[in-house]
Queue: 3 jobs
Job 1
Amino acid sequence: MLHLRVIVPREKSDAVRRLLEAEAGVTHLVVWPGAAVSPPGDVMSCDVAREAANTVLEDLRHLGIDDDGAIVLEDLDVVLSRSAREAELAAPGEGADAVVWEQITEVTSEESTISVTFLAFLTLATMIAACGVLLDNPILIVGAMVVGPEFGPLAGLCVAVVQRRPRLAARSAFALLAGFPIAMALTMVFTWLLTWSGEFEKAMLEAERPLTAFIYQPDWLSFWVAFLAGIAGMMSLTSSKSGALIGVLISVTTVPAAANTAVAIAYGDLEQAAGSLGQLLLNLCAIVLSGSLTLLGQRLYWNRTHGSRSRHETLAASRPPAQRWPQAGRTKD
């Protein structure tokens, strides 16, 4: 379930309370009249079944609460309550299938903004991958994949495409278009420094590398792996399965391809640089394509199966609280 906290202007308090009481997927409603100081108003908190979150958030935004007050939503790990179980049963659909659009938009928007931290992680990941490709060491390659933060902007592009958010698309694209060249340029300097110190040499790049040769040899298999990873990555974000996202990060060849491109340019091997750059672009395009299609499919599925309630559910939700809850009250211990 999700926990919702709302700061409501006094003049809208009754409307918001009726809204929350009428929603079958809402429980544990608590109201603190006049408790909010900045912005001033009443404070209401409740727990919301994930399946009902989009409806509640849309209704609150329709009332202008996001402008006049505040809406805070957070995940709950453990909820032990009979009324919570009843709320989840009353809400249409399954929580694992529900996509909370406001939540996924906030997450991707935050991770799609270029920053010093984003550039630092991307640069460090590219440098680690540079060591991996020259040493033909897959362990370093996997480590670089996990460190790389590039999936955030890629997910932001997917959300922007499906929800038609040009600002998010521009911000995500800028993070990628500026982040990778900066990381690659710094990795070239890193390569020259280690070559000067005797740790690297051009022969390492040109030697046979059976474990990492795939990085600069793009093919259709690379496309399909990235395509499938994009689906898994987007589903891990929408369902909050962070463990699955880690698996996605170590299955796509973005950061390693960028690292091999930088090293190849540093040593003047333009043919290998072109192959690595092709691998990078292939992976980026495949992830954005599959991620966008996944989000679109999730939205169409949810709208088709749960977008509108049945007449019985609508009538039940419109009844006053006293008429809706007596049966639940009789089942309590």
Note: The two ends are 22 Å apart (CA to CA).
Job 2
Amino acid sequence: MARRCRRLAGLLCALALAPMTGGAAPAATPASTKAAAPGAPVQVLVPSLESRGARPLELDGFWFTAPGEGRRPALVLLHGCGGPYDRQGRLASRMRHYAGLLREQGWHVLVLDSLTARGESELCTQRIGTRAVTMANRRLDALGALAWLAQREDVDADRLVLLGWSNGGSTVLSASNLTHDDVAAARPRPRALVAFYPGCDAELKRGYRPSAPLQLLVGLADDWTPAAPCVALADRAPASAPIAIERYEGAYHGFDSTAPVTRRKDVPNGVHPGQGVHVGGNAAAEQASRTRMLAFLNEQMR
């Protein structure tokens, strides 16, 4: 708990100095909302559907308010295995950039942290099957975030979105697959789903019935979460629930960044276990994927 408090205190300080702004505080919010410095996103506690004893597990989150009045659509941003923070403990540039991009469209944004409350800082170096935070955990987090958003007076509960990257993209798939009992029972359901380079194997093998329209964005050179299972997922989708997929030639994992491509030898998973994986940006894929993401979301938010 002490580590969590120190992290949150540092984050609020860093976010107050960051160029990204969160807009004015909403007129009415759940009791879990905490004060933040002017111009910074609001620190919030979001109940997961996972319980600890008699109480729900409370997750750290950062709430970016859209400019303007009235009820607005809202998106949950789901981080990858590295968590939502950078090496300095600040909210990662990817999260801040996308929050700003989406706010410009007039949409609220919630960045959700599934790791800190569970005593973890990253999952990337943990083998799949032994990870301390499982996909079942993250699915319950995403469903809890949707419920939290639906209770807000400034949110249009009929226009909610799950958007994730890598492990967070896999969470989007898991939290929208109606073959899971908890997903089928949960309300509200999202209006749209976006997954950047997710791992698609698990939901492909299970059988995927999406609760909302889905846009997949994958790199064909990805050797961490390969594109092929995602292509198969889209190909097998019924005509009544089609899945849109965009494939980017020469793009590795994390293509929507400006970072150079490097090989991470500390990652035990991937196409060639034990040999590491490639991660890094691709300028063409970065631009094309964001353009496609915004077009898809604007289509679905009508």
Note: The CA atoms of residues 177 and 208 lie 6 Å apart.
Job 3
Amino acid sequence: MGAAIEVVDLAKSYGELRAVDAVSFEVAEGEFFGILGPNGAGKTTTLEMIEGLRQPDAGTIRLLGEPPWPRNPALLPRIGVQLQSSAFFERLTAREQIHTLASLYGVKAATADDWLERVGLVDKADTRVEQLSGGQAQRLSIACALVHEPEVVFLDEPTAALDPQARRNLWELLSGLNDSGRTVVLTTHYMDEAEVLCDRVAIVDHGRILQLDSPASLVRGLDAATRITVAPGQLSTQEALAISGVDDVTEGSTGLVLRTRQPAVVLSALAEQQHLAGVQVQTGTLEDVFLSLTGREYRA
């Protein structure tokens, strides 16, 4: 497969702030690619330059083999963009909104109605967009970005403001898009979302890519300790520390948490002592990788 997106030494500054700093990566055709990072890391700015919405200060971008800037009309029917902040035509219903977008691309009204159903908005079809909840507006924005069946889809925080059930339903929809051969580029704050959906992820901070690989490879490379949670009352902290292979023990809300890099040894010891009832085992996650690279401090 060829590259759907090629980015080389991309840079963008706002005054003294270096929002994007010498970023380079490729996204293969049909790949589900994630861009992860804290607030202000440069994710949205990078996406907007690839989409042709913002002019880079330096570097080159090829989107489906063509430069997106200056604004390239030939690319518009081939890409779908869901922005972080939804903007709709005023005083239109959800159905009128997506029908209007569909007509701009020569897409039939029936196809637009099908997309309303796919994002669960049939019962809100006659509701004006300003009366939709935040989550409903987000789903309508995604449907509008996909109604013309684009080759490459850009989704900027697509599941923000969605409840857990709506998020899971949207994951299924996005997985289906990718399975059909479309290239999807996603920014998200949800590490579980990236682990489930993305073939590869780039973790960015301060405008630079810190790591780029598959979620599984990033987790393996971290060599994070396994966390084994033992139900309350099973054993004391001193007894847990005495088990071979246990590095440290903390008391959590659901019991004692044993950290180890030898989970098989520890679980075998717990089995011998008949302390396996209610045991929970958690290996390293993409969130562990993210926090190890970007830090744990809160960023507004």
Note: The chain has a mean pLDDT of 91.
